[in-house]
Structures are given as C-alpha cells and as structure tokens.
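For anyone still unconvinced, we reproduce a single protein record, the chain in one-letter code, the fold tokenised, and leave readers to judge:
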Amino acid sequence: MNKLQDWQIRFEGFIAQRSAKPFTWGTNDCAVFAADCVQALTGVDVAQPSLRKHKTELQAARLLKRHGGVVGIATAALGQPVPAMQAQVGDVVLAKSNGRDMLAICNGATCMAPSGTGLAVLAMPVDSVCWRLS
C-alpha cells in the first residue's frame, strides 16, 4: 500500500483530529483508528465492512474471534507483517495494553492508540510486528 505524496501533512492532520477523541467501540477503537489512519495516508479504505459495525466490547470480541484477532484483521487488510523494529512513521504496529493485543500507529520512537481520554502515547514494542506502508 503506497502512501500519498502529501502523507506527512495528512498524518499530522489526522493525529491532530484524533488527539482528544476518546476510545469508542466501532468508531475509534484500535482497529478502526488504524484503518482510518491508513486511509488518511493512502486514500484507500482497508477496513472490512464488518469492522465498523460493532458497538460493544462483546461484539468486538466476537468480530476479533471470527477474523483471527487484531493480527488477522491487520494482515488481511495490509499483508504480511514484518518485525516492529522496521516500523516507520505511519505504519501500523502490534502493541499491548493491559496484556491485550491492540493496533497502534508508529510515530517514530513511540506509537499512538486511542484511550479513554484521547490518544495515548506508548513505547514502541521491540519484540512485536508491524505492517508497513510504502
């Protein structure tokens, strides 16, 4: 998946727009956040239609189970992952929060994902994977 020529400006705008938006199932959870960021940077909506239909944690858990978890969802949309140490700004990263897998977006030495109060900044996982956008 190729980034648009002005992807840096799009990335800054996307992050600014989402910085204070709280986590919400189906509209701003980790998978939707990652898909929306990919769309902002590439112009391509990689989200399966079912990705935006859940409204509760239970519905999300069922969706994840059907699609092989967050790794399965990301791999189906973005191809095979590579080691997270290869992640660059804008790439989708597999991170952990409270022992659970989640998708985040690389921002250089850190990554970002939705939280209850807006975007959370997380340490880049070193023993994980990422999905590269070129």
